Structures are given as C-alpha cells and as structure tokens.
Amino acid sequence: MVAPNPLFRGGWSWKKFNATVINDIWPEVFFFTLVAVMVCLVSNLTSVNLGISNALLTVLGTVLGLVISFRTSSAYERYQDGRKMWTAIGVASKNLTQMIWIHAQSDRSGIEALQNQTDIEVAVEKKTMINLIQAFSVAVKHFLRDEPGMYYEDLYPLICFLPRHVNTHLPHEKLPLWHSHEGFEEAATQVETTQQESLNGLQIDSTGKLGSWPSRGRRSRRSTFDPESVLPRVGSEHPLKPARNPPETRITDYIPLFRVFRWLGQVILRRTRSQSELGGKRLRKRGQGIDLVESHIPLEILLVLSNYSAFLMKHSLIQPAIASGITANLALLQDTLSNLERTCNTPLPFAYQAHLRMSLWLYLLFLPFQIYDLFGYITIPGTCFASFLLLGFLEIGQEIENPFNYDLNDLDLDYFCLSLQRELHQITAYNNPNPCDFLYTNLNQPFAPADRRGADELCHMGREYRYPDETSEAGMASIKRTLIHSWRDVDLKTRHIRH
Fold first, then answer.
1. Contact at 8 Å (CB) between 294 and 180?
2. Helix (H) or strand (E) holding 387
C-alpha cells in the first residue's frame, strides 16, 4: 500500500510541504549548487582550472551510498517496528475486551461476597474496565509524544474516577497517578483566570467541553470533527489540554538557516532569565500548557487492569483458560509498552549522524571540482541533482527515525486510538445472546449448497433427516452425505480457471 500524497489531500497550504524533505535540504542544495557555479565560472572566465582528478569519486561515492542506504533502512525498520507494536496493542486490547465482556461471569448470585451485585452493577464494572483498556492506548500515545500527565481531553474522562489518595482521611497523600509537585495548582489557577474559566463548579460549553487549553490545530479534518465529544463529560480541577496539540509551524520550518538564530536566542534567554524550581523539579511551560513530572500513566492503567484480573480470579468469575489469556494479553501490553519506549528513547548515536553528514558534505563540496573537466557547465545541474538525491535520503532517515510525533510522515497515532475505540465499543455492543435464540430459524441454511432447507425445518425432521433426493438412509449417515456434496459443489464452483 502506497501512502497517500499529503500535498493533494484536503485544502492546500504551504504547511503541507513539511511532508517532504525539501524544506530541510534546500539550503544545503543551494550552497553546493553555488559552489558548482563558482567552479564553472572561475575555470571558464580565468586562466585557473579548478578541475581535479576524479580518482576517488567512484570509491567514495560507493561507500557513502552504502552508508546512507544503511541509515535509511535502519530508520525505516524503526518506523515499521512502531507500526507492528501498535498493532500488538490493538490485538491485545481487543482480546482483553472480549474476554472481560463475554467470558467474565455476570450472574454472581452464587458468590457470597458478590451476591448483592445487580446486573447493572456488573455491566458498569465490565464497561469501566474496557474504558481503561481504551485509555491505555491513549496514554501510550501521549507518553510517546513526551506529553506527561493525565489532564488531556481524550484521557482524563476515562480515568478520572480512579482512587486519588492513599487514605481518605489524608487528602494530601496522593497516589502516584495523581501526584503533582507543589505549585501546579497555583499556576493552573492563574492560567484559568486569564482564560476566564472558573474552578469552583462544572462549566460545560455548547460542545460539552470543560476548561480546556486553547487548541492548536487539534482538528485535522473538519471543524465538525470532534471525537472527544463522545467521551464522558466530567469536571476537572485543572484545565484539560487538547488531545492533539502539534507544535506551531514556524519560519524555521521553511528556512532552516534561521534555526541558528533561534538557538542563540534560547541560549541568551536561559542565561538572562532565572527559572523558578519548585520542590527540586522544574515547572516548564510548553506552548499553551504546563507539563508535569508525574508517574508512568500507561503503567498505572496496567496495574489497575491487573488488579481487576486478580479480582476475577479470586472470586472464580472466569475459567482458568480465560484467566491465562487475560494474563498473557496484559503481559503483551506491558512488553509492547517497553518496546515502544525503547524505540522512542534510543536514537541513532550522535557521533554516527554527525560523521555521516560531515562526510557527505565534504563529498558534495569536492564533487564539482572532480567532474568539471568531464561535463563543463553541466556540472551545475549535476551537482544540484546529486546533492538533492543524497541529502534527501539522509534527511528521510532522520525524519522517520522517531515515528511517534506530529510530523506528516509519522504514524497517525490519533487514528489508531480512535479506530481501537470504535472496535472496543463494537465489542461491548454485543449482547451475549443465547445461541438457541437465533440458530433455529428459516434464515439459517447450515447445509447449503447441497441442502438449502432452513434450520427450523431441519430440526423439525429430527432423526428422520434425509438427503434432499429422499433415497438416502435417515439420520447422521444422510447428514454426512449432505456435507460431502456441499464440499464437492464448493470445491468445483469456487476454483478459478486460469487461462
């Protein structure tokens, strides 16, 4: 499957050029093209010939080509690994949902400790745990994007009911999931004041949102696309940041040369502006929101799910085989989370990247000197094309090395989470009917194509069932003959005749 071209999807804008590597490499391509122009003009307009021997051109070009190919392949392998691990999260989540929703016992009248539970309470219990399974994928998404904390529009409504304190009589002793260093409440209140939002009550706007941070490009399709509107509407003591909060597009994204000045400005600001430290930890502002150094949210959700599986096993609400399946899928989620963290936090060593880029720069710098004697003025477009080709492959490797961010070439984690959300809701929409209630009707023709009679007629015949030609022996022998004829018809009529 070829990825769709983002340049021609939806409305057109200059931002879509970020899907290519042109924005990142054009200054380098322009520089090496100017070097080629200089070589051609000096060699033609003066008595000095800047051409040199091209003996090393082939050898160095081959080596650089192999190294760049390895760089791109290793980056793409990380990209594919990220997609495979998200598939593993989807498979394990759906397996857990099916085991909890279908196999966990709903009738608990025979269990002394749970005999007072009503059917509604059991359904609420199961659906809540399935919502936590959905919350796990959302928490992993924010974790990989370096967005700590749980105060997000797509995450907080799913986990806000979890216990917050070690003991109810110790309100200041918060559990790790809800722990934030001192000072965050005050900072959040100041931000809310500027946004004219109150923390004293539930203020729900026309879309059902509560005290959220200003969104920067959260809706990627249309203004009516608002998947968070289907989540629970609950109040939050802190403002909720948007589910999708990509960084703003700056001029440095189109003119990389300006990144040097941006870096210099940041260095100067760091030296001239004192940053307050609260409780030994730094309170950092990032965009419109406040990042917190908090616990590992996906791990906390897995702990809750593991505790629920222990509850089911303790009261014998699931069969041993299902208990093993739940444990195995929870272990798969844990393993996948660790592998995603490894991929996200293990970049290619800087020394390798720097040496490869410097080697390529030197190769392209001396390229026009080596090919001028052979091509003349064609050296200019030749150098431009060679630099565009080699620098492009090198930049592609760096672009897809971490596929979990907001770049147009990264994995669409938001789509994966929403797709999983739809599938989990589809599973819980299954009402666990008794098979006898829908099997024996005239709409069911189990022995087709050899016998197209409905299941109700077949069951009415009972042991007197005969193959449709009415010459067969009644009973199972006739059923076996029917199945053989069905196989033969299917085998003959579904084979494709190759010419």
1. yes
2. helix 379-399
